[in-house]
Amino acid sequence: MPWTKRIIGCVWETVRRWFDPRELRSVGSTPDYRFSLANERTFLAWLRTGLALVAGGLAAAQFLPPLPLAHLREAIAVALLLLGGTVAVRAVDHWARTERAIRLGEELPASRFPAVLALAVGLGAVLLVIAVLARAIGGR
Amino acid sequence: MTVGPGPAGDPGLQPERTRLAWRRSLLALTAVTVLTVRLALTGDAAGAVLAGAAVAGWAAALALCWGRAVGSGPVRATSRTMPALALAAAWQATLGVLLALRGLG
Known about the structure:
The complex is a heterodimer of chains A (about 140) and B (about 100).
Chain A lengths: L1 H18 L1 H5 L7 H31 L8 H33 L8 H25 L3
Helix pairs in contact in A: 3-4
Chain B lengths: L13 H27 L4 H26 L10 H22 L3
């Protein structure tokens, strides 16, 4: 199938570019190292956010008792794990685009991702609060 | 700007803060790896293989990123360390999905 081949090629090209330091150094001028370090720490903060979500998913999979709804425990675990993995991979992409913008003296890349993540986590928390209350009021 | 105890010209101790951020991150990855291994080890061969895969990903990321955490090497990061750490995190998430769905099959 040509389109799967193209998607795999595109992903491979992106990952290869992440690992190639020459690619990033070829554009613009080298900034004050403190800007690069600040960008690096922002990446690490995002990565730890992703790791916290992954840890939550792993904990749900092994420490939650089986829930009354079939496979709900697994669904919660997989949702948290996928969200955490996405946050981690997106952190690299955002770091690379920010570094590029700093080198070129452009505006830093804007992103809707933090808002989407906040809404997703907030919505998940609200659903869990409703589930806990429903159980408490329902007498188990 | 007041000059702190750091080297002249960098009162913000930026390299040290970055080193500490790397240590926190590698510690978080280690904790996640422990959770993955605990979930994987159920006494069967498939579990042992998945646990080994989790430990291998952790070790690879630690080997690549150790220099950033202890401050050896250049002040500025080579761009290999960051994707390495992110892929290690995504690797633990992928193994976690496989392990969470293992009980359903």
